[in-house]
Every structure is written in C-alpha cells, then in structure tokens.
Design a protein that fits this description.
InterPro entries: GlmS/AgaS_SIS, GlmS/FrlB_SIS, SIS_dom, SIS_dom_sf. The protein is α/β, with parallel strands linked by helices and about 350 residues long. Helix content is about 45%, strand content about 15%.
C-alpha cells in the first residue's frame, strides 16, 4: 500500500530545493522589514508551532536576538493590547487560512510590530495579505492530513529568516539540505526494528534538546496524530527533572540529536541511562555514538546542527507512516483531524 503521506515524504527534497531557490534571494527584504526591531515573536499552532520552536532556538543561538512563542489567545480571547514596538512578529500557517493566526498577526501589527508571514498558502492567502512581508514556501498541495513537506519547507523558510536577521551561519550549507533529505528517504536506518519496538506499546517519550527540540515535539505530534500513541515530547533537561519515571518496558524513549553540537553528549548519556534501566531507547541521528547507545537507531543527516532538524524529522515521518500501517491505521486520514484547523 502506497499512502499519500509516503508520497509526500518523498517530495520533500524537491519542495525544499524550490523553496530555498525562491526565498534565499530575499534575505535583504527580511533585513529591511526587521530594521529597528530587536525581538522576534512567533505566532502559530500545531505543527507550525513546532516549526516556530526551531526558529526560536535558531534566532537566539545564531542571530543573538531574543525570541518567544506568542499566545494567540491574548489577542483573540482576552483581547488585550500589548506594546509591541521593536518586535518582529512572525505568523506561521501552512494554509495561510487559519483565522486565529491571521487575526493574531493583524493584532500584532496594530500593536506596533513589524510582521512577516510564513505560509504555503501563497501571496493571496489571508495571512500573506496581512503581513508586511510574506515568505511563501513551495511545497505544493499537501493532501495527507499529517504535515510533512509543508513542515520541512517551513523550517527552510525560517532558516532564510534567520539569515536575514544576521545569523552567524554559512548560507551555502542550505544547498546541502535537499540531498541530505533524499539520502535519508532512501536509507532511514533500522526502520523495521524501531517500528517493531513501538508496535503494541501504549505510549512513548520523544526527547531532544536545543536546536532539535522542535524535532522531538513534531515527531511526538505525528505519533499522536497518525498512530494514536500517547506520545510525550520533552526536552531531555525537563525529562530528567521527573518525567523520566514514566520510561519503562511499556514506554520506550525516542531520543533525537544532531551529529554534532553541545547537546549530543547529554543525549547519548540519556540513552545509556534508559537502556541501563531495562527500557528501550531508539535513537534518531546523533551519529555512531547515539546509535551505539540505543536499542535500535534511525539515521540522521550529514548537516551542521543549525540545519539538522530539516533532516532529522524525515526518518521520524517514515517511522510514523510505517507504524500507522502496522497498526492498521490509515495515516492519510487520522480520526478527528482536518487539514485546516480553526480554533474558537
């Protein structure tokens, strides 16, 4: 059985490549809109909110600007006005039609913020029309309900945003991302072993830290949406503060890491602690060190840490699709979900 989700996973190298070709020449426009701003406020929900977590870490760690995730309910439910002078508000919506996000971005603009939209909905979408600048991704239509290519192209757009904000990175490294993603699609690692290790389990903890925390959150969301698992996405710093008590024979851990960077050693140590306690630890990325400390492992991309999340989610997407089929679930149309979610 070939699912739409699996087909759209395979379209990601081309979608990322097209998005980067369209957006990389526009870093000067980002710089111009962001002039006279100091802070970045992300406005998003769901998968887009997980993408925003990546944007927050990237901008704080590499562009030296304070960034935060906004609470749309402050605008839409509490109707509070906040002084946003000096703030760059970035609204993320794959469809560009989520009313709550459109309304919140307009609220931010009315409160004095400069505004940027990141959307796959095109320049004519309500979100793009609301913003001072729209960074439109080129993922094409996504028919499966679980987001795959719209998520990774959002990450690509956020990398371009960070470059426009002066991030201390090599923009040329972005050109390596499509090929790295393509390699992971053809060789995701020990996929069958991880699927087998999760089949029949009621829940799982998914953990990563720093730049890859976004991947842990997104993979946990996908496992909830498409496999109906009780999946908990946590920073490993938070996991060690108490919730690690839930990791046992019936609740394995999926641990995510880039192949380099300051959080890798801690992730390997966590894998050793989990397996030492008799539970299963499934690695995603982290090179030979994490693979060696894990029960089974999925491959990661040959990319620097700041770009690793664009690749790390791909074996997680393949895992989600394969596990859903193993469980007899159609990953294209999970129960209770729609492609565009409107929040009261």
């Amino acid at each position: 059985m070939t699912t739409r989700m699996r087909g759209e996973i395979a379209e990601q190298p081309a979608a990322i490549r097209a998005t980067l070709e369209a957006l990389l020449p526009r870093t000067g426009e980002v710089e111009a809109v962001a002039r006279d701003t100091r802070h970045v406020l992300f406005v998003a929900r769901g998968t887009s909110d997980n993408a925003a977590v990546y944007g927050r870490y990237l901008i704080e760690a590499r562009a030296g600007r304070l960034a935060a995730l906004g609470a749309p309910s402050i605008a839409t439910t509490y109707r509070r006005r906040i002084d946003l002078d000096g703030v760059l508000a970035v609204g993320l919506s794959q469809s560009g039609r989520t009313e709550e996000i459109v309304e919140t971005l307009q609220w931010a603009r009315d409160c004095g913020a400069k505004t940027i939209a990141v959307t796959n909905g095109g320049e004519s979408s309500p979100l793009a029309q609301t913003a001072d600048l729209a960074l439109c991704t080129l993922a094409g239509e996504e028919k499966a309900v679980p987001a795959t290519k719209t998520y990774t192209t959002q990450l690509a757009a956020l990398a371009v945003l960070a470059i426009g904000l002066g991030a201390d990175v090599d923009p040329g490294d972005l050109r390596r991302v499509p090929d790295a993603v393509e390699k992971l699609i053809s060789d995701p690692g020990d996929l069958e072993a991880v699927v087998g290790g999760l089949a029949g389990k009621p829940g799982v903890v998914v953990s990563g830290r720093g730049m890859v925390f976004s991947t842990a959150l997104e993979l946990a969301l996908k496992l909830k949406e498409a496999c109906y698992l009780h999946a908990m996405g946590l920073s490993y710093a938070d996991l060690l503060h108490g919730p690690i008590a839930v990791v046992d024979e019936d609740t394995p851990a999926i641990l995510v890491a880039a192949g380099e960077g300051p959080t890798l050693a801690g992730t390997i140590s966590l894998a050793e602690r989990v397996t030492g306690a008799g539970a299963s630890a499934f690695g995603v990325g982290g090179g030979a060190g994490l693979a060696g400390a894990s029960t089974a492992a999925l491959n990661g991309p040959d990319l620097p840490e700041w770009l690793a999340p664009m690749g790390l989610i791909v074996p997680g997407q393949l895992l989600t699709e394969a596990l859903a089929r193993r469980l007899g679930i159609d990953p294209d149309s999970p129960r209770g979900l729609k492609k565009v979610t409107q929040t009261d």
